[in-house]
Amino acid sequence: MELFIKFNIGSFTELSCRISLLALLCVMSFSSTDAYDALDPSGNITIKWDIMSWTSDGYIATLSILNFQKYRHIEAPGWKLGWTWAKSEVIWSMLGGQTVEQGDCSKFKGDIPHCCKKKPTVVDLLPAAPYTQRMANCCRGGVLSSWVQDPANALSSFQLTVGQAGTSNKTVRAPKDFTLKTPGPGYTCGPTQFVKPSKFKTPDRRRVTQALMSWQVSCTYSQFLAQKTPTCCVSLSSFYSETIVNCPACTCGCQNKVPRPAAGTCVGSVSSYLASALAIPSKINSYTPVVHCTSHMCPIRVHWHVKQNYKEYWRVKITITNFNYKMNYTQWNLVVQHPNFNHLTETFSFNYKPIIPYGLINDTAMLWGIKYYNDWLMQAGPDGFVQSELLFRKGKSFTFDKGWAFPQRIYFNGDVCVMPPPDQYPNLPNGSSSGIASLLGLLKLPILSLLLIFFSAP
Prior knowledge:
Blueprint: H1 2-33, E1 45-54, E2 58-67, E3 80-84, E4 90-95, E5 97-99, E6 121-124, E7 155-163, E8 176-181, E9 187-189, E10 193-195, E11 199-201, E12 208-210, E13 213-221, H2 223-226, E14 232-238, E15 241-245, E16 266-267, H3 270-279, H4 281-284, E17 291-292, E18 300-309, E19 313-322, E20 329-330, E21 333-337, E22 344-348, E23 350-354, E24 364-369, E25 376-377, E26 385-393, E27 409-412, E28 415-416, H5 434-443, H6 447-456
Parallel strand pairs: 14-18, 16-17
Antiparallel strand pairs: 1-2, 1-13, 2-7, 3-6, 3-8, 4-7, 5-6, 9-13, 10-13, 11-12, 14-15, 18-19, 19-26, 20-25, 21-24, 21-27, 22-26, 23-24, 27-28
InterPro entries: COB_C, COBRA_pln
Membrane topology: Lipid-anchor; GPI-anchor
Pfam families: COB_C, COBRA
């Protein structure tokens, strides 16, 4: 009996060790992949540091911030880029950008540098910046478009003249500890890497020049680091069901767990928001969302409505509602994953481009507004929404059963939206079939359309 007990204790100890080791490996794997996006596995923001010429005590460099993320962009008030100098470098002058602080330059008796801080932070210039301070791809207020949505504006550049840095590739040292804020946390930057010198084409594209030295830094995004709570949610409805599935309660917060409405966090109407803005302007001027009081407390809600059913097609209506009284979402975008996007026929009032992360499987779509029409999602209120409709052709796997007509995943501006539980999805009426669902859809059509369908049917 004693031997049996010792054996079991030993086995239990070994099992405990194995479980602990497995848990440790799981934690390590999650911590290393929390920035991984399955729909954009190679998406990142790349910072290139190109030394273009040497000066008497340093060099002139061009910094480029390239957004290679397919659907995640940087909104106002824009990016902030920081780093730590390897030695005692200073920035004598800049074009296309500026540091937020000059630092202590008291030891300089003649010309005063633009920045003397050991850890400078640079921001983009505004569009109204003087011509003498500008350069190519600058002065957009730090706003960067996503690579798919607007690749021409997915690049930002500025130039700096660096002093006390060495005057050759043997004495100069690369900066380290890069940080990228857009406008809050979320991005983690890797180490500075030496790369092959960048090459540039002249405006006439007949000559290629080359940087003297080039460094590169890659920054990846993590939604968890950017926001501990979700920022958007999804609600569902369908023509064949009277049930409207709202966003899950307390998705982005609960009303009883936030400060009073006067604190500028949750307000019931535009008038109450304006009253709180006058009462506490410091709160209203911050970038913390002030959302309309709802059961879900999310700044953004995406509603997917299965609108109509035809003989060979079916139609969906998408509505994006902004519940944030303090935010205009410029150049917003939506990424939707659904197996029928391979048969998408037409989109109304939204731009569309497929995103194919898994080889030939076309089940993911990127949608965004039409420029100067609905590319701005206005603040909460009567105009705080945009909507469009999608027309799909029915594929071989088409069905209204078991929630197939609803999306598998939705992103808004690159952040995953919370979906309702699958067991709450609108269901077909009891005993219904696809034929009855088709009849229900036909009954919702106008009489003229109904006659056209019946007379044109084979």
